[in-house]
Queue: 2 jobs
Job 1
Amino acid sequence: MTELPRRPDGICALVTGAGSGIGRSVALRLAELGLPVAAVDIDGKGVERTATVIRSMGARVEAYRADASSEADVARVFRDAEAALGPIGILVNVAGIQSSGATVRDTSLDEWRRVLRVNLNSVFLCCRAAIPGMLGLGWGRIVSTSSVLSARGRAGTAPYATSKAGIVGLTRSLALELADRNITVNAILPSMVDTPLVRSTSTEEQIVARGRELGIGRVAEPEEIAGVVAFLISDDASYVSGHSLTISGGSYILA
Amino acid sequence: MKTPLPNPPPQGGKGEAVSPFDVGREWFKGKVAIVTGARIGIGRGIAEMLVDAGVSVVVTGRETASMEQAAARLEERGGGRALGIGMDVTSPDDVRRTVDQTLERFGRLDFLINSAGTRQFGPLHETSLAEWDDVMDVQVTGTFLCCQAAIDSLLGTGGRIINMGSIYGYLGRENGASYAASKSAVVALTKVLASELAPRVTVNAIAPGTIETERRYPADMPEEERNADRAKRAAPVPLKRVGTPEDVAWSAMFLLGPGASWITGQVMHPNGGFVMP
C-alpha cells in the first residue's frame, strides 16, 4: 500500500489579509491547530491585533505589515517569516479588495488595474515565493480565496469578478504543475461573508437581504470559511487539488 | 415610445416556412464588426467568414502595415469591406481611436470580437512579474478596454460581443498559469458584461481547444514535423483532429447570428469534445 504523504514537522503557515475578516479567522484557526503563523496584512494595526490574540492562546506568531501585491514586500516577508518560524509549508491567500460597484462602462483603468493587482497579482507573487520552499519540503498546501462572483456574472462587479476568476485559472494550472510533489493548490469560492471589508461597503439591511437570497438564509461567518481552509490544508485533503470549493450555504452556483 | 429590443426572437416557426440560411444572409448584410488580433489564426478566420457574409470588418493587430495588407486580402474576397488598423489593445487611446475610425468609415458598429491574445509558458515559480503582467494586460485588460470603448456604439445598434476564452481556462495548463488565469478571467468579465449590457447587447465567449494556426505551424515548418504534432495533439481529442480557425469562426457566426438572440453570458466550446464542462 502506498504510504500517504504526511505534513512535515516544524513548518509554519503564512496567511495574507490576516488583519481582519476571513484572513484573521484562518490565522486563528491554524494557530489552534498548533501551526506557527506568519500573519500578513497591509493594515499593520489589524495584523498586530490578530497576533496579540494568537499570542494570548500561547501559540507562535509573527505579524508583518506588507503589501501582498508588492514583489519586494512579498520577498521580504517570506524571507523573514522563514527565518523566524521555519519553512513555509502552508500558504493561504486571503488579501483582497472589493471594486467600486461601477459598470464596465464607468470603471476607470486605474481601478481596473488596482483590483487586478491587489487580488490576482498578490496570489501569483505569494505562490511564486512559496513554491521553492514547498518543493524543498516535499509537501505543501496553497489555498486561495476566490469568490462565487467569479462565476455569477453580477452587474457592477467586473474588476472584482475578473480578478477572482483569474485565481481559479491560476489554481488549476499550478495544481497540475505541483501535483506529483505532494503540494495541493485549491481555491475557495465563498458567497458573502460578514467581514469588516463587506461592512465597509454594505449596510446591515443589504447584508441581511443578500443572506436571504441564499439557500441557508444568512451570509457566512468568517469562521465558516476558516473551517474549510482547515480541511484543505490537512492531510485528509491530500488528494484534493485544483479544486474550486464553493461555500455558498446551499445555493447552487455554477463554477 | 418604447424602443423595440434589438434581439427579437428568430424568424420562422408559427407555420411559416423560412430558410434559416436566407434569414442569416439578410441578418449579416451591411453590419459592421471589429475583430482584434486578426492578422493570423482565429481572428483572421473570423474576419474572413464575416466578410464573406457581407459584414464590413475592421481588423486590428499591432503593426499597421501588416493590418493594411490583411485588410487588402479581405477586400479581395468580395463581400463586406475591410479596414486594417495598427492598434495596441492595452492602449486606451489606440482602442478609442479604432472605434472612432470604424464609425467614421462605416457609420456603425454591430459586432466586437476580442481575439487579440498573447501567451507565455514556463513553471509559475520561474515566471517574472513582467511576463505575468504582459499576458494579463493583453488578454484581460485589452478585452476590458475594447469592450468599454465599444459599449456606447453597441448599445445603439443592439450589437454583440464575443470574447476569447480557452480550453485551458477550464482545465488549467501546466506551465501556463498566466494564460489559464487570463482566460478564466475573460470568461468572468464576459458574464458580468452580459448582465450589464442586457437587454440590448449580448456578450458571449468562445473557449477553443487546440487550433491549427500560423503561430503554431509557421509556413517554414517541415510538413513531417507538422503532421507529427497534429497527430500528437489530435490523439486525446474525441473527434480525432485538431481544430481550425474556421471551426471557431462558425461558432462565432452562430453567436453573432439571428439564432443567438436569446443567448448571453455563455461560453461555446469548439474543442472536439476534449473537455465537456
Note: Chain A has one domain: 12-191+223-247.
Job 2
Amino acid sequence: MIPLSWYLILSALLFCVGTFGVLARRNAVGILMGIELMLNAVNLNLVAFWRYLTPGLIAGQVFTLIVFAVAASEASVGLALIISIYRRRSTVVADEINLMKW
Amino acid sequence: MGDPFGLIGQWLMDLVTGWGMQPVAALTLLRFLGAAILATVLLLACFLLIVAERKLLGRFQDRYGPNRVGPWGVFQTVADFVKLIGKEIVVPDGIDKPVYWLAPLLVVMSVVGIWAVVPFAPGFLGTDLNVGILYIVSVGAIGTLGIIMAGWSSNNKFALLGAFRAVAQLVSYEIPMVLTLLVPTMLAGSMGIAAIVEAQKDMWFITAAPLAALVFLISSVAENGRAPFDLMEGESEIVAGFNIEYGGLAFGMFYVGEFLHAFTVGVLFSTLFLGGWQGPGAEQFPLLGLVYFFAKAFVVWFITVWIRGSFPRVRIDQLLSLNWKFLTPLALLIVSLTAVVDKLAVEQGWSRILALLAANGALFVGTMAVLGAYGRSVRRREERLRATAGGLSTGIAR
Amino acid sequence: MTVLQIVFLVTGFVTLLAGVMVVASPKLVHAALWLIVSLAGVAVLFVLLNANFLAVVQVVVYIGAIAILIIFAVMLTRRVMADTGPTHNPSWWLALISALVLLGGLLALILQVPAFAQAGPTAQPAADSGLSDLGTALVDVNRFLLPFEVASVLLLAALIGAMAIARPADAAEEGGE
C-alpha cells in the first residue's frame, strides 16, 4: 500500500516547485500559476491527511472545499487586476510595475 | 431471458482468467476493452446519425436530404468520411504544433467520456460513480478547453476571436445547466446517475420538474453549439470560427464531436428527466430497457434537430443576455423553489409530485408575466422612439 | 509493487514534471497548458485517496474555470503574438536555492515522524466517501455552516470586485450605461 509519507513528499515537492515559480517568473500571470500550484499542493496535503489519519471526520474535505473557493476568488480578482494593469501600462512584467517602489 | 450483459461479462472474465491472468489485471483489461468498444460503436454510430439529421433537416426545409449515395442516401456520411480522409491536411505556418493536434482529441474525448456513466439498461453501465452528475459537467468542461486550444494554436485572428466567443458561450451556459442538474439530484437524493434512473421507477422526473427540464434542454443545446446557438461556427459570419485552419480528418473530428454531442444531449435528457431505461418490463428483460433508452434518446434528439431547423441564429449579445438575464435567475429560482417544496411535501408519492408540479406551474406563470411586462415596456419605448423620429423622417422613402 | 503504487508513482511523476514545465516554460500559453496537466494529475490523486467528489470539483473548478481564466489572461495581455523578453528573473538561481532549502526543511519534517511511514491507511472512510456527511456538515449550524457562508460571501465579493476592476476605463466615464 501507499504510505502517507509518499503523498506528503509529493505535496512538498509540488509546493517547492510552485515557490520557485513565484520567485523566479517575471510575468505576473506566470507568478499566479505558481501560486495555483502551491494551493494544489496544500489541497493534496489536506486530503491525504484526511484519508489517512481521520477518515471519519469530514473536516479535511470541508477545508479543501474552502481552499477551492479561496483559490477561485483569488485567481479571478488577481487576473482582473493584471488585465487592468495591462490596460493602463501595457505591461505585465512584474519588474516594470514599479511606481510604488522607492 | 435473464441478464444477457452480465452473462457476457462473466463469460469474458472466465475466458481471460482461464488464460492465466490475475483477476485484477483481467478486470482492468476487460474494462479497457469495454471502453474501446463503446467509443468505437459511438463514433461509428455517427455515420448514421449525421445522415439522419441531414435528411430530417431537409424535410423540415421542404426538400429531400442527401439521397444519392446508397438506398435513401444512408451511405452519405461514409462518402463524406472517405473524402475527408483523402483530403490533404493543409497545416498552416506558425502554428503551435502539439496544441494544434491535441485540440480535436480533447473535444472528442470530452463527448465520449460522458458515456462512461450513462446507464443503458439495468446493470449495464460503464461505471457507477456516486458523483456522476458532476462528472458529466467536468468532462464537458474539457471540451471548452479543446476549443480554446484550437482557436489559439491556429495563428489566425478569426480563429482566436471565434474561440473567445465560443468559450464565452460555453462557460456562460454551464451555469444554468449545472443549476438545473441539481433538480434531479434533489428529487432522487443522489448524484449517481444509476440512482437517479432507479428513482424514476414510478414517475418520470419531467412531471415533477418540467421547467427544470426545459432550462436544461436549452442550456444543453447551447453547450453543444447547435442552432439557434451555433455562433461557434456560424459559417456565414466568422468563417467557421475556431476550426478555420483545420482540414481533412482533423476537421472531421470536430464535426463528429459536435454531432455525437447532439445525441449525447438527447441521452442525458432522457436519462435524467424521462426515466432512462425505465419502462414496462424493463426490470425483467434488460434488452427491453436498452430499447426504451434509445427510443427516448432518439425522441429528444429529434426535438433538438427540429429546433435546429426552425430557429434563426441568435447574436452573441442576445445569447449572453438570454443566459445571464433570463436562464440563470430562472434556474436559481427553480432550484430554490424545488428545494423548499420538496422539504415541505414530506410524504413520497403523488402528493409530492403534484406539489412540485404546482410550484413549477406557478413559477412558469410568474415568468411569463415578467417576460410579458418586459416585452411591453420594450415595445412602448420603441414606439416612443419611432413617434419622435417619425416626425423628422417624412421625407425619407420607405 | 502493487498496481495502486504504480498508478501513484506514474501520476505523481507526471504531476511533478508538469509542475516543473509550468515554472520553466518560456512560452506562457504552454505553461498554462502544463498547469492543466498538473491539475488533472492532482485530480487523479484525489481519486486514489477516495475523495471522488473533490476530484470532480477539482476538474470543474480548476481546469474548467480557473485554467481557462488563466489562458484568457495570458492571451489578453500580450503585446504581439510572440512572447518578448526574458521570462525569468536574472536572479533565478537564488529562487532555486530558496526553493531547495524549503524542500529540505519540509522533507526533514516529514521523514522524522514515524507514524507517516506506516504502510497504509488504517480506517476506511464512509461508503460514499463522505459525500452525504460533507453535505450535512456544510449546512449544520454546529459544524461548518459559518465557514460555508463566509466562503460564499468571499466569492460574491470576488465576483463583484473582479467585474469592477476589469471594466474598461471609458465605460465608467460615460455616465454609466
Note: The longest helix of chain B spans residues 350-390.
